[in-house]
Amino acid sequence: MYCGLSEKGRCMRVKEIKDISDKCEVSSKTKQKRCKRKTIKINPKSNQKNNSKKVCPKGKILNPKTNRCIIDKKKNKTMKKICLPGKILNPKTNRCIIDRKIPEEEIIKFNYRCKPGYIYNSSTRRCVKKDGPIGKKIAITSVTNTIGGPISMHYYKFEVNGVMKHFLLFGDRHTQYVQHTSPEIIEITTLVKKIIRKSPHCIDIFSENPPYHDLPKGKKIQNYSDPLNAMRREFYACPVHHIPGKKCNYDNLRYQNWDLRFKVEIGKDWKSNPYDELFMKYSYEIDKINAKFSKRNIILYLLGFIEKIPADIVVKLDKYFDERIKYYQKDNSFVETTADKDFFIQTRKLIRKEYNKCISSVKFPRDLIEIFIRRFISLRDSDYTLVFTDFYTICRMFMNYDRSKNTPKHCNEKGKKNTSQYIIYYAGNEHTKNICNFLEIMFDVKPVYTTRYKYLNGNANKLIHINDIRDAKGKILKDVKSVDDLFRDFYE
Description:
Layout: E1 2-5, E2 11-14, E3 24-27, E4 34-37, H1 44-51, E5 60-63, E6 68-71, H2 73-76, E7 87-90, E8 95-98, E9 118-121, E10 126-129, H3 133-141, E11 146-148, E12 152-160, E13 163-172, E14 185-187, H4 188-198, E15 203-207, H5 227-234, E16 253-257, E17 262-263, E18 271-272, H6 274-281, H7 284-292, H8 295-303, H9 311-328, H10 332-337, H11 341-361, H12 368-377, H13 385-398, E19 422-428, H14 429-443, E20 449-450, E21 463-465, H15 488-491
Parallel strand pairs: 11-14, 13-19, 15-16, 15-19
Antiparallel strand pairs: 1-2, 3-4, 5-6, 7-8, 9-10, 11-21, 12-13, 12-20, 17-18
């Protein structure tokens, strides 16, 4: 059987060899022998390649065999890796690390937030649907095992005068926290909110900020200059439950402001205590005053316990501070940022008032003032800026509070102790270490768990993994598999 072309160009059977056409062939798909056009196999990719060359993005080249774009390994080695905002490239490891040179007041804006219904995939740096196969896998396999924001954490639990007290203390470094919101990480503000909501107990938060402030409602932690500032603004309404127009979303939270170094009035600039600013702004003044007076007398003077100091020393201290402050008042920046001497006098009166309440509420195993002074003197650097704040905070942690209409609903129930039992403390790491050491010396206790065995001065990357936390003997916690396991005492 021969196949050729008809007059119209169709394949048909022909009788003679001379009429055979190369364009036709015998079809083998049907039982009856018929002629059909020859099938010409065309590779569409090669055809496309011949007609128009595929264009690849930067960092990729075209694979001629597959006509696909692949990573150019030769070029990729020399290409500079692009890091997220707030991070820089380490040339030795080719990894992105936190940029420590970012000014503390600079706020970095992040655009990688996922919209509702999506979850962040850390491996691809993209947002994927929560109900999609990858999103479900991330949700199922991920365990929240890291706290983002603080650099240290310590937990103490012990009985004081028949009352079990719980101290959860976080240390902060006043720099911005820069980290992706991955499922394994929970931010400090989110964690604290979760503890408050889940806890059936009255929670006391002690945060490093002045007694009065007028701040806008908070946002995500990355939009703040540092995690401490995020804590301040997230709970901004809770110290003022009773003021119209200010609403606290938690009826079991007592939010305590304790930073007595600043005087804050709504609508006005912050003013610092001149006696505190002297040491904060001019650190060499610490060495000068230490050369003239004993540390014990300086601390007693600042706190207002002048009856414990010889009368002639009090006169000399008065004269010394008056002269030094008068000298620095020639500097306009000092005058503009400091309050008058009356603020210092008011501060000492407030400290004495809270101290009297404290010692009438609690019987301490040792003298409160003496232990505080002893702990302070043992510090390598006598930072007198800690004196006002830390002593005042300790007094408020142990004193009984007055039940009144201003007390949150679930902190004012009958049968509940009117003293702080579940305490969350968030402050600069030096303050936190000072409070920890005071508790250990005063009550002869050790932490239930702490990060100090892993990071003595705190973890600089502002991430606390559950494996970084140790018990009092320095061993890894065996019964902790997620962050929630750390706070069972607050949830039960």
